[in-house]
């Protein structure tokens, strides 16, 4: 039975991933951790440790205490926040990852560290961005993600450490709010549609980006970690996607259920610049071929589920 430590577990992905994995592997076998404790159901539903990934001793203590054999490293500062705090983004995203990998090397743990579409840059192909292509990101977040992919590759090649990862697009959740990313509008638009029947978007119309509904993202992490290692040729940098749309596209999907919904625009030039540097769409054939990646939700299916779940959550 796996013993899995999840860092950054109280963030958008971790909040759902911990509960999902506990349902698969057992509550006692998935240890949630975060650099500070705050109110969250997963804290009370199973083991929880306070871990700051920039302090390697905290990781060591948790791994030894719980006999951890797998680390899902979700501790990160995201794109928009990272541009305001680049030093902190480097420290957590890179020094934190280095600490996780060193502890994993010492104790023989497998490691999953998600990368991002932010690893691509303005010179990358915009449409059907290939698995292997030029990657020169223009944000600190993107720089840390490219460097993180390479560092994980190094630990696999040098130390035979079982490292794996995927390049996530924007993730949309009906449970936890996002934490300062460029694609956050695609979550907030659903809340505003239900509460106010209108939304003011900080990105321009026509800004296409890849997106994914959180249930598919959870499956991606579990499926990749369970995949046959002999079939993985791109261990730490799999393109994965489920859909690509612009603000007008998601607004049109919402209008099928809320006809009076209106979208307006008040563009944030700093965030728009980041979005413009990212792909419009990804080619994820390698993930499909190497470990069976197969998302279940497209835009319409996600919109229907989001509106139903959020209406119950918000009691509207």
Write up this protein.
The chain is globular and about 55 Å long. The chain is built from twelve helices and 14 strands. It has a six-stranded parallel β-sheet. A three-stranded parallel β-sheet has the order 6-8-12. A three-stranded mixed β-sheet has the order 9-11-13. Helix 7 (185-196) runs parallel beside helix 9. With 316 residues, the chain is α/β, with parallel strands linked by helices. The N and C termini lie far apart (42 Å). The mean pLDDT is 96. The protein has two domains: 4-169 and 214-239, NAD(P)-binding Rossmann-like Domain (Rossmann fold, 3-Layer(aba) Sandwich), CATH 3.40.50.720; 170-211 and 243-280 and 296-314, UDP-galactose 4-epimerase, domain 1 (Alpha-Beta Complex), CATH 3.90.25.
Radius of gyration: 19 Å
Number of discrete helical segments: 12
Strand order of the largest sheet: 3-2-1-4-5-7
CATH architecture call of the largest domain: 3-Layer(aba) Sandwich
Segments where pLDDT lies below 50 for 5+ residues? none
Distance between the termini: 42 Å
**CATH fold assignment of the largest domain:** Rossmann fold
Task: Write down the domain tally.
Answer: 2
- The level of helicity is 40-55%
- For the record, the CATH class of the largest domain is Alpha Beta
Task: Offer a concise description of the structure.
The protein is an alpha/beta fold and 316 residues long. It has helices spanning 12-25, 41-45, 56-66, 79-84, 86-107, 140-159, 185-196, 214-226, 247-255, 269-276, 285-291, 299-314; strands spanning 4-7, 30-34, 48-50, 70-73, 110-112, 115-116, 163-164, 166-168, 170-172, 198-201, 209-213, 238-239, 243-245, 262-265. It has 2 domains: 4-169 and 214-239, NAD(P)-binding Rossmann-like Domain (Rossmann fold); 170-211 and 243-280 and 296-314, UDP-galactose 4-epimerase, domain 1.
């Amino acid at each position: 039975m796996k013993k899995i430590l999840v860092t950054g577990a109280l963030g958008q992905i971790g909040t759902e991933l911990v509960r999902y994995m506990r349902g698969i592997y057992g509550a006692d076998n998935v240890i949630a951790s975060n650099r500070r404790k705050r109110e969250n159901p997963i804290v009370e539903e199973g083991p929880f440790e306070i871990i700051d990934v920039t302090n390697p001793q905290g990781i060591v203590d948790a791994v030894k205490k719980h006999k951890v054999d797998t680390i899902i490293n979700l501790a990160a500062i995201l794109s928009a926040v990272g541009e305001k705090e680049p030093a902190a983004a480097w420290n957590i995203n890179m020094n934190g990852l280095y600490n996780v990998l060193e502890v994993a090397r010492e104790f023989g743990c497998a490691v999953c560290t998600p990368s991002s579409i932010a690893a691509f840059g303005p010179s990358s192909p915009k449409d059907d961005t290939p698995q292997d292509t030029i990657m020169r990101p223009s944000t600190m977040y993107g720089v840390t993600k490219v460097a993180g992919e390479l560092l994980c590759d190094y630990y696999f090649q040098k130390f035979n450490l079982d490292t794996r990862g995927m390049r996530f697009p924007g993730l949309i959740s009906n449970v936890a709010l996002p934490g300062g990313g460029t694609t956050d509008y695609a979550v907030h638009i659903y809340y505003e549609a239900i509460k106010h029947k209108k939304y003011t978007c900080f990105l321009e119309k026509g800004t296409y980006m890849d997106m994914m509904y959180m249930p598919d993202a959870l499956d991606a992490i579990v499926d990749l970690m369970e995949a046959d290692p002999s079939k993985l040729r791109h261990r730490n940098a799999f393109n994965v996607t489920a859909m690509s749309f612009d603000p007008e596209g998601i607004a049109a999907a919402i209008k099928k259920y809320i006809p009076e919904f209106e979208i307006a625009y008040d563009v944030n030039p700093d965030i728009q610049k980041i979005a413009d540097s990212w792909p419009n769409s990804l080619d994820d054939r390698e993930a499909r071929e190497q470990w069976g990646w197969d998302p279940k939700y497209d835009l319409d299916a996600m919109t229907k589920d989001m509106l139903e779940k959020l209406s119950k959550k918000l009691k509207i």
